[in-house]
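Re: export button greyed out
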Amino acid sequence: MAVNTEKNSYTIIFAIAMVLVVGSLLAFTASTLKPKIVENERMEMQQNILYAFGVNDNEGKGDITFIAKNKVAEAFKANVKEQLVLEYKDGKIVKTMTREQYMAEYNQEPYLIDIKKQQANAKAGQSRLLPLFVGEKDNQAVYVAPIRGKGLWDAIWGYVALDKDMVVRGAFFDHAAETPGLGANIKQRYFIDDFEGEHLLSDTGAFKGIAVAKGNNDPTNLRKDDFKVDALAGATITGDGVAAMIKNDLKLYLGYFENLKKPASN
Amino acid sequence: MGLLSKKDAKLITDPLADNNPITIQVLGICSALAITAELKASLVMSIAVLFVMGVGNVVISLMRNIIPSKIRIIVQLIVVAALVIIVDQVLKAFAYELSKTLSVFVGLIITNCIIMGRFEAFALANKPWRSFLDGIGNALGYAVILIIVGFFRELLGAGTLFGIPVLGDPIEKTGVYALGYENNGFMLMPPMALIVVGLIIWVQRSRNKALIED
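Workaround output, generated via the alternate export path:
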């Protein structure tokens, strides 16, 4: 080719053209695919919440299988009886909103509340909105709360189903970028299933959380009131992150569960 | 291979053994250590790299006469990054579950030195078809090592292959565990990947003395 590719002016023109072409190509792809991606993410949230409720297509003891996509919307309606939004400020829950009240004010479904944003709000001294999904599992009322924290490389998050005594009745964890084969295994059944039946509160009602512990001599997790589950080998920091997000985020709901136990005063 | 001339076929077969990107050129070690704790991750990564190397090499080769040499590295980086992001977006829209599995690898693909290495060493100086074969060949060479390492690490570290228990149940003590065998958790750590790669290099060089450098 006859172009002199060594000239500075050519280099600059080439760089500009390259940036324009690649930039618009990426922008075009992103904007055309966005509606589909948002829809996929919305469905995934519903699948995750339903998983914590115990609604899934799991077979045997293998991988996690969510409920099929074409059944999600219906199952979500049937299983999530109520979507509450608690407003948390200065160490206590100051307001409880029903789904209708929340939607009237914010014009979005409570399950779409961005936990990351709410955590940032809380850090900035503002109030934090805590979604809580009420439904039933094995004929008893369960409350599913979203949690979010830090793993080794990136964010980790999940949904935990609690009964009225804050005993875990189901859970789901996911991660953005934990190491495959190590930290990424927090979304495997053998890790998640261990949480079922674990207590969050001591006998006196103090909030203890669940530690992801090494060497607790209970690999099959028979003791459910030791506030510990067996850790994953080679994933110490991810495991600590799971314990931390359970502790930090579920603690905020304590006030709501204490209220549940009080005999109705009115 | 009737389709390929002898010279072209060498582009594919060479990187599989005597010019392997990992064990001979010592490229792409970082991702080989990071993700080979299980076989499934190794396989997913191999397929992703195969795609990016094949297409990327062709794109760079087509552009080889117009890329200013002063900024060629940045141009290569942009091509890889753009390719990976477009693929990721398309998967997110049409194969969401698959994209979730791949998400962690996206960053690793962009920084994989094999890709940049082959762009720089081959695609910039060769025609598209040969560059394509070179890309595929090197990606396969990379895949072979990843899968070998992943196989041994998952088998000895967790007693499973593709997540399926093959040695029995370590808690119920069935299969080989009944004989007192234990999983070696250390195999799941990245240092063991380095040692396994080292063993492969040792075996390879003791079989073919020509590979030993002074």
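The interface with chain B takes residues 1, 3, 5-6, 10-11, 14-15, 18-19, 22, 25-26, 29-30, 33, 36-37, 40, 44, 62-63, 176-182, 184, 219-220, 233-234 of chain A (CB under 8 Å). The button fix ships in the next patch.
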